[in-house]
Design a protein that fits this description.
With 172 residues, the chain is mostly helical. Helices cover 62% and strands 9% of the residues. Strands 1-2 form a two-stranded antiparallel ribbon. β1 and β2 (96-104) form a beta hairpin. The termini are far apart.
């Protein structure tokens, strides 16, 4: 690619810069969803944990931590808080009695159903610049990009760390 071709495809303003627009979208979503999460332990991060636990595809804390990009020791504290809130419980794994699985309680499933409805409403507010059909296309494309993440190496950030860095809320 020639230098002039590279300049023609480079963003000419911050509004055309991918990183800037993604950061604004994440901040808008976090600001709008904070009230939606109410008193759910750990807010939006906790919501992702609850979605993953109730979904039942990740059998234990380590699998949850890896999937969500959360340090496994932090995941222990998150699950502890969810157990105290009555939203999840640790049960013996029927296929390995030495291990425990994390499952949603009835209260956790009910809380998640209510939260998912409210989160969808919040997403519609954040995506108000798009028509309803465009929102579905956007969500579909976003899922495709998120699920086609390149291989992780030792220097990559987990999902939570990446967002915290982007928002400037990372702890040093």
């Amino acid at each position: 690619m020639s230098n002039s071709a590279a300049l023609e495809t480079s963003p000419s303003s911050t509004q055309e810069d991918f990183g800037w627009t993604l950061g604004v979208l994440v901040r808008n979503y976090q600001n709008a969803s904070a009230a939606t999460m109410g008193d759910l332990p750990h807010g939006a991060r906790g919501y992702q944990v609850l979605v993953a636990v109730v979904g039942g595809e990740l059998p234990n804390q380590l699998a949850l931590a890896q999937h969500l990009g959360i340090d496994r020791t932090v995941m222990t504290y998150l699950i502890d808080d969810f157990v105290k809130a009555g939203l999840v419980e640790r049960q013996l794994n029927p296929s390995d009695r030495r291990a425990r699985i994390v499952v949603g309680t009835a209260a956790g499933k009910d809380a998640l159903a209510d939260l998912q409805r409210r989160v969808t409403e919040t997403e519609d507010v954040v995506l108000a610049a798009l028509e309803p059909a465009e929102r579905e296309v956007f969500r579909t494309l976003l899922r495709r990009v998120a699920c086609h993440t390149p291989a992780v190496n030792d220097h990559d950030l987990g999902a939570c760390e990446a967002v915290e860095q982007m928002l400037g809320t990372a702890k040093s």
